[in-house]
Specification:
This protein is mainly α. Helix content is 86%, strand content 0%.
Length: 77
Amino acid sequence: MAGNQFINIFAREVVRNVTRLAMAFGIKKGIDMLATRGKDPAKMTAEEQAAAARTQRSAREAVKRARQAARITRKLR
């Protein structure tokens, strides 16, 4: 019985970590797609590349702030 419980806990942790990695990958790709508007960075002008870099920075900051807010609200519950 105890072995089965260990397997369940282990499987839950593996699923949680895989989900976390998939979400991080998806968020990163989404930010990149949003910033470049689907264009290939090699074909963008210098002005477009600078704008994309600014957008990426601000989007990553927004994600960081959202995670902080979620962490704080979890602590308050």
